[in-house]
Design goal:
Blueprint: H1 6-12, E1 14-15, E2 18-19, H2 22-44, E3 53-57, E4 63-65, H3 66-79, E5 85-90, E6 97-98, E7 105-113, E8 124-132, H4 140-143, E9 152-158, E10 162-167, E11 172-178, E12 183-188, E13 199-201, H5 212-222, E14 234-235, H6 241-251, E15 254-257, E16 270-271, H7 272-285, E17 289-291, E18 309-310, E19 312-315, H8 317-325
Parallel strand pairs: 5-7, 13-14, 13-15
Antiparallel strand pairs: 1-2, 3-4, 5-6, 7-8, 8-9, 9-10, 10-11, 11-12, 15-19, 16-18, 17-19
Helix pairs in contact: 2-3
Bound molecules: 6-O-phosphono-beta-D-fructofuranose.
Amino acid sequence: MSHTDLASFLRQHQINGQPAPSELISLIEEVAATCVTISGLVAGGALTGVLGSRGVENVQGEVQKELDVLSNDLLLNNLEASPQLSAMASEEMEEIYPAKTRGPYLLLFDPLDGSSNIDINVSIGTIFSVLKAPGGAPDTQAFLQAGKHQVAAGYTVYGPQTMLVLTLGAGVFGFTLNPADGLWVLTAETMQIPADTQEFAINMSNMRHWAPPVRAYIDDCLAGKDGPRGKDFNMRWIAAMVADVHRIMCRGGVFMYPWDKREPDKAGKLRLMYEANPMSFLVEQAGGKSIAASAGRMLDVTPTGLHQRVPVILGSRNEVEKIESYGV
Ligand code: F6P
């Protein structure tokens, strides 16, 4: 087994033949250290009093869970004095949160993804994205950069093991948390998503609300080897994007959260800046593909708002291209 921990990995890691910037290394280490603390809270469950809801709604109109708030506060408190940061933005806060200094980076996060899984002891995670701060006093506009400008992105999944999956734009690397010493140990090098798959992830209960091309694609998958695809498909849905994307990182598949008729004025359910963009950066770095449906490559989408929603289709490259061929 590898004994390379996150700190040694980051110091050896090369991006286009250059060492990773020391400020970026420090920032990743600070985020990862906070995720160790969140992992401890998650693992304690009812014993640490983190289950249940706060009874208030976040900016998305979703009722905040206790752990959503605690994780958000931990990230803010641990990182606000980071000399690497200029400001932060989170799913749980309407406005941006200026850091104490004017460091070189901006950090966006979904502190606890998959909230509906918290109280039932099913996998959840933290997603983060790092952008360069354009300089000057940080404002919302500074964050509205297309995903292709991210300098790092990652997620942690709090599952049977706690894992950190990370890219600095030169491949994707997975680390497993050793709970005995709190170290992240490199356990998956240059993760690659297989180009082909026979597995899709979508919330099938929304089928009657989908647009016709989504329905046509899923109908053809369900028809199995007697249908136009000529092969049987499997389905998985964990209801935490982190966990569904992690499975795709490990064995391939496609994840879809398309626009649907339930809320026709919203482009989709998932958020561009701290869900779709970081996941798309990781997926592309692992050889996969990610699109905002007919709007094309996710990482090229020009953001218009911090909490903007997008349709998301990502995963095994050839299957995402197949979905595109339906006119999704
Ligand atoms: O952030 C939203 C989220 O929890 C994702 O992690 C997940 O993929 C999705 O919502 C699940 O949505 P639904 O409950 O509609 O299946």
